[in-house]
Design goal:
The protein has 418 residues and is α/β, with parallel strands linked by helices. It contains 14 helices and eleven strands. It has two domains: 295 residues, Rossmann fold (3-Layer(aba) Sandwich); 91 residues, no CATH class. It has a nine-stranded mixed beta sheet, sandwiched between helices. A two-stranded antiparallel ribbon has the order 4-11. Keywords: Hydrolase.
């Protein structure tokens, strides 16, 4: 569950320290094959820094905003520093939460500038974990495109790429972290939103693509699309190190600082989303007193920029965080099971990538999900990658992903000579 940069306080543009900028530069060098040229990135980073002071107004919406149809755009604006050969928009759009209530979600739409004939296929990207607080949203940052894995390859192939922030991020709203129905709605509705931007020329053909938390979101979107968004034609779903068996993953990961961090994000989200199904003071039923106090603090912090703070809080809690196992303690066990991607057959082809050295999304848990899908009759293509961990598996998988896409006959758009 990938780390994103952080800032101080919602409602203000995020301020990124020189150390974080240096880390981004190093990441560009390390991840260059899947991203873009260093010079281009540095130029766009500077453009993003110049634009930051104007962002807070975009993420402010009136409390009396009327309800809208799922995917209906509330506000959009062009984003500076788009990748070469592309243009981009920041959007606020209507979506729905776990209970089906209308909510406003933020995200990004990126489209090629090359002339094409007809409409373009959409890739709906579901991002890995960056945090859960509003200021942790990828679209707010000075480099909103950086962590969209495979972005330049999809743009070069003519696809429109859309990237939701998920509900509760970007601007206040209901929680979404590892809440399958909320994530699914957010991922599908931003594809609908892209169709309202004339310059994007987005069609209703959609490929779902997600990493880690985003893999969880993409799988739920694939299962829910037929009844939630029948106007969307999902062509396939691709996931890298997806969060599938949430109970098993929580039990396996809670022994380290990363697992405690992810646990804090998830348990806080569930305590809010399912308040009616839980007892009063729900976190105290499964966490130690120190765990309860730490969870409220950790849920307000973003990954990467505030990673040191997260580790400082989590490290003393190793072995002292849980009072009982949520995966085996009602009603928490039922809520985790409710948000486990279904093992029922998908009606579209499935691509799964998993690093064999992943210590966060465990390979044997992903393998069990793949086997279940194969037994159910889903058309599954699965790849594992030796000596690849959690953070880079989506990039490692890009070559195999595009082979799979081409075999399925998908295409972004036809280039026009005009």
């Amino acid at each position: 569950m990938r780390q994103g940069d952080a800032a101080q306080g919602f409602g203000r543009p995020r301020r990124v320290r020189p150390l974080v900028l240096g880390l981004l530069a190093l990441l560009v060098l390390a991840l260059l094959p899947g991203l873009f040229q260093v010079a281009d990135f540095a130029e766009r980073l500077e453009a993003g820094k110049r634009a930051e002071p104007s962002l807070s107004a975009f993420y402010t919406v009136p409390n009396s905003l009327p309800a809208g149809s799922p995917g209906e755009i509330v506000r959009s604006e062009r984003v500076v520093g788009a990748p070469p050969g592309a243009e981009a928009w920041r959007v606020l759009y209507h979506s729905s939460d776990e209970q089906g209530a209308d909510t406003i979600v933020s995200g990004t739409v990126v489209a090629p500038t090359a002339n094409t004939t007809g409409e373009r296929t959409v890739v709906s990207w579901a991002h890995p974990t960056t945090g859960t607080a509003p200021r942790c949203a990828p679209s707010i940052g000075i480099a909103p495109f950086f962590f969209i894995e495979g972005l330049t390859r999809f743009l070069s192939a003519g696809y429109v790429v859309v990237a939701t922030d998920y509900a509760g991020m970007g601007l206040p709203g209901p929680p979404s972290f590892l809440l399958g129905n909320t994530e699914a709605a957010n991922v599908l509705d931003i594809a609908r939103a892209a169709q309202q931007i004339p310059g994007a020329r987005a069609s209703n053909d959609v490929l779902l693509w997600g990493h880690s938390q985003g893999g969880h979101a993409a799988l739920f979107a694939a299962h829910n699309a037929a009844f939630y968004a029948p106007d969307i034609d999902v062509l396939g779903v691709a996931v890298a190190a997806p969060a599938t068996d949430l109970g098993a993953l929580l039990t396996a990961d809670i022994v380290g600082v990363s697992g405690i961090t992810i646990g804090a994000y998830a348990l806080t989200a569930y305590a809010s989303a399912y308040a009616d199904a839980l007892p009063p003071d729900p976190l105290s039923t499964i966490l130690t007193p120190n765990g309860v106090a730490a969870t409220s603090r950790m849920s307000e912090l973003c990954l990467l920029g505030q990673n040191d703070q997260l580790h400082a809080i989590a490290k003393p809690l190793i072995g002292r965080y849980l009072a009982v196992e949520p995966a085996t303690s009602p009603p928490w066990d039922g809520l985790l099971a409710q948000n486990k991607p279904s093992s029922a057959a998908l009606t579209v082809p499935l691509f799964v990538a998993q690093g064999e050295s992943d210590t966060l999304v465990r390979p044997h848990i992903t393998a069990a999900y793949v086997r279940a899908q194969e037994l159910a009759g889903t058309d599954v293509t699965s790849h594992t990658y030796p000596r690849v961990g959690h953070g880079t598996v989506a990039l490692e998988a890009l070559d195999d992903l595009f082979v799979w896409i081409n075999q399925l006959g998908m295409s972004g758009g036809s280039t026009s000579s005009g």
